[in-house]
Amino acid sequence: MIDTDPNRLVITRPDDMHLHLRDGEMLKAVAPISARHFARAIIMPNLVPPVVTLGDAVAYRERILRALEGSESPQSFEPMMTLYLTETTDPEDVAKAAASAIVKAVKLYPAGATTNSQSGVQNIDAVSPVLDRMAELGLPLCIHGEVTHDEVDIFDREAVFLETVLDPLRARHPELRIILEHVTTEEGVDYINGAAKNLAGTITTHHLMINRNQMLAGGIRPHYYCLPILKRRSHQEALRKAATSANKRFFLGTDSAPHTASTKETACGCAGCFTAPNTLSCLAHVFEEEGALPNLESFTSLNGADCYGLARNSETITLEKASEPVGYQSHLSVAGSERVAVFDPSVPLYWRVI
Q1: Residues 31-69, buried b or exposed e (16+ Cβ, 10 A)?
Q2: Under a CB-based contact definition with an 8 Å cutoff, are residues 234 and 77 in contact?
Q3: Is 306 labeled as catalytic in the residue annotation?
């Protein structure tokens, strides 16, 4: 809700429905940053080795909670775990995971689609028994919606996936609840809007803020390289319209994905944008530009909880608009000399969390 002061915005404490926390020293560095503003997060399972079983998820969750011990972040942060779907995933283990209090979804990575997706699915038919069981249990399937065929242009991977993989998948499993993660195209927005039921989508901060021009025009900017890759401006505009509309099918999944500068600033850099520190400032900027500040709460705090069948958070946070651009940390130090670049919004930001 907008405060009586037009420069203040009070919203239900947000959830991040797509977050990479990594492991080890990186986990210790980035977990408190997300916990500072977000009450809960859907945690991605693409570690090395991946989080495949309920036992893996329990162990990873314990490492996340240990990483938060002693930090200044709120202790109420809840990591909501996911399982990495493989062609050997056991439906019974998935059933146990669904019955647990900690696993909220299963993640489908097409093999080779993104960071640490080597163990992903190559033959979608091979996982049909797991998907059938998930449909029975009401356990959502989170999907990285891209094909990885060499003959498909990287900018067309999402659109081709919708037609050749997702549409047949939904026809075979009509009761399966699906979240199409990090939607990046107008086709993706239209597809979700056209679905009768059981389909929603997350949208990232960086795909709302920038398009492929910012990544490529005037020089290559490796810290804007992500997967799914940034698309043309018309797709960015479609994403903005969907995110700011208060449409319950769309909600925030930052896909905040930290990599060290040494692995980004190289001849073959990693994919991912580290947006956790300034996501809410960026989103307030976008929603204000679109004349939709009252809808920010729906996108960040309500729609995702409703989609996952979760109680809405009871706490609130306050954003305030300053008269001068707000500063933000440009890099995060990790384990000595290593550093992670914080997402550069490419424009001045005036909103901050207080």
Answers
A1: bbbbbbbbbbbbbbbbbeebbbbbebbeebbebbeebbe
A2: no
A3: no
Rounded to 10 deg, the angle between the 24-37 and 54-68 helix axes is: 70
Closest CA to 204 of 167, 170, 158, 160: 158
How many Å apart are CA 213 and CA 229, to the nearest integer?
12
Q: Report the alpha-carbon angle 320-322-323, nearest 5.
A: 150
Q: Where are the beta strands (DSSP E) in 99-211?
A: 103-108, 141-144, 178-181, 199-203
Stretches in the chain below the pLDDT threshold 70: 1-4, 72-75, 112-118
Catalytic entry in 167, 190, 255, 344? 255
CA-wise closest residue to 36 among 332, 310, 323: 332
How large is the greatest C-alpha to C-alpha distance in the chain, in angstroms? Answer: 56
Question: Distance between CA 157 and CA 2 in Å, rounded?
Answer: 39
pLDDT at position 117 is 58
The per-residue pLDDT for 76 is 86
Q: Quick one: pLDDT at residue 4? A: 66
Q: Which residues contact 17 (CB under 8 A, 6 or more apart)?
A: 41, 42, 179, 202, 251, 252, 253, 304, 307, 308
Q: What is the DSSP letter of 318?
A: E
Tell me, what's the pLDDT at 55?
98
Pairing of strands 178-181, 141-144: parallel
